[in-house]
Amino acid sequence: MNNFRYHAYTDIRFGKGQVACLPELLAPYGKKVLMVYGGGSIRKNGLYDKVKELLAEFEVFELGGVEPNPKITSVRDGVEICKKEKIDVVLAVGGGSTIDAAKVIAGGTFYEGDAWDLVADSSKIGKVLPIVTVLTLAATGSEMNKNAVISNMELNQKLGTASHDFIPQASVCDPEYLYTLPAKQTAAGTADIMSHIFEQYFQKNTEAYISDRFAESLLKACIKYCPIALKEPENYEARSNLMWASTQALNSLLSCGKGGAWTCHPIEHELSAYYDITHGVGLAIVTPRWMRYILSEDTVDKFCEYGRNVWNIAEEDKYCCANAAIDATEQFFKDCGIPMTLTEIGIDDSKIVLMAEDTVKYNNLKAAYVALEEKDVEAILRACL
Ligand code: NZQ
Ligand code: ZN
Description:
CATH class of the largest domain: Mainly Alpha
Low-confidence stretches: none
Strand order of the largest sheet: 1-8-5-4-2-3
Number of strands: 8
Mean pLDDT: 97
CATH architecture of the largest domain: Up-down Bundle
Distance between the termini: 38 Å
CATH superfamily of the largest domain: Dehydroquinate synthase-like - alpha domain
Radius of gyration: 20 Å
Bound molecules: 5,6-dihydroxy-NADP, zinc ion
């Protein structure tokens, strides 16, 4: 096993009605709160009013309208409020986009220059305001991790940045908030959770037995519960298992003892940077094509392990088993209603070369499970058309 640091300190308040804990969770940091939220879903489902009511004793400033694939322009607006009003704590109420924007706002508050610098170069992140979240979408794990992904549409860049201090101090995870999610977001969120697991599971290290078994159990939870949540949006058992899977899939638990660069996320980030698509949809399209592309004598055993342990595939022949597992993955995403080609979401081949170039330029794909070059990324993207 590789050496690792596991310091997952977020105070998670999971379950029905846990939002009532907000005053207690925010109080240690001060009275001035910047509440960050998205385009209006929390107003429609009543969460906005609930939070405002709970924070009656606090001085609450607001930044609404954070976009999916959050833009640096929104982050800059938030930084300005924090600096001007001397904010004590940033409260994100929403999905991964809202939480990611809140993180860079919290870091940008203590940075002299433009907040985009912190996205382009994480070593520039210094002090960070405390962050508390109320999660409304099971997908990114941002509620308990150190990452933030921000888009700069002027530069056609969507980049990830990270800081240990971006890990939220506390997160309220109430599965009932997932009831209002459109089916598309439930399915895309699940594809994102599964992709986070794949990125950590398909790595060279074969000794992290515990991490791999955790990974398989989380994958099984997604496969079992996403179809139920799609059919019965208010099924609490399904929503709660998906919500907990999203948090555990990307809070560094699954990479304990493992390591290596990711592949599908860097490719998807280019699709989002050029076409502003839904992250999980891009991942669902890319993942089975990547799996097929890298299937070889070196990787077949791992894919077969995935097939046997996650999909209960009994094929004796290891290539048959591996291929059946990849087919099952693709079919699962299809059955969840995700469009499974780039063409279906309006993307043609005109920028494929550019996106392949950028994927390799901004990410170390040489350190991935299977090292990829520009031509490989191009081939994977063409297989997605
Ligand atoms: O903006 P509002 O009105 O809130 O609507 C959102 C948005 O339109 C809606 N939504 C959220 N909760 C809802 C709801 N609608 C109804 N009911 C609810 N309870 O869903 C839409 C998508 O929201 P968004 O926050 O964009 O989704 P998600 O959580 O999937 O976040 C995606 C972003 O996170 C990044 C992605 O790249 C993308 O930018 N990622 C962040 C990661 C991290 N921080 O660790 C890792 C991931 O790999 C990912 O890259
Ligand atoms: Zn993701």
